[in-house]
Amino acid sequence: EVQLVQSGAEVKKPGESLRISCKGSGYSFTSYWISWVRQMPGKGLEWMGRIDPSDSYTNYSPSFQGHVTISADKSISTAYLQWSSLKASDTAMYYCARNTRGHFDYWGQGTLVTVSS
Amino acid sequence: QSVLTQPPSVSAAPGQKVTISCSGSSSNIGNNYVSWYQQLPGTAPKLLIYENNKRPSGIPDRFSGSKSGTSATLGITGLQTGDEADYYCGTWDSSLSARQVFGGGTKLTVL
Q1: What are the pLDDT digits (tens) for A8-56?
Q2: Strand ranges in A1-117 using DSSP code E only, listed in sequence order
Q3: In chain B, which residues have their Cβ closer than 8 Å to the Cβ of A44?
């Protein structure tokens, strides 16, 4: 069974750093890109970027380029999304999703990130 | 503002049929496959339709997808109260800043 399991909810202060994770299982992790998708409270889905776990090549949405970093460790089938300095506007639910031929066939359960002073 | 345009809300009675539209351009829907996602309250999105009109295993044939030119449509027949959810279309945008794009989402209410 294909599963993407994300790390738990986080509460951080503005300016702090954070890395959240997404662990894949039940399939060959290096055969599919992993994307990250943001959903702000009460809002729609926004694609942030993706990574090819086989070589860690990344694509970012222009809206998120430079604000977050996507990485992966194929030895443990895990992708990451990280911030070096969080802002209150980063408060959102973040989903990882497996890319298959232009669509997302499996999604993680989501990680809620709350940034508040 | 989303690259793909969806109606904010649609509604219909149980047992009825509803359609949700998704409008884009030649750089996205016009030249790429469209997928549709269902997001039930408090849960992660779920793939409903991929490559314009294909259903993943386990998705009932009450759900259907179509595409014509730069627009796509999701159809749901035999509406059930359990279909109340947000629905999103998605596709790849091949413009200068190539990226995956979504519609703004449509809230389906089953009256």
Answers
A1: 999 999 999 999 999 999 999 999 999 999 999 999 999 999 999 999 9
A2: 3-6, 10-12, 18-25, 34-39, 45-52, 57-60, 69-73, 78-83, 92-100, 103-107, 111-115
A3: 2, 86, 88, 102-105
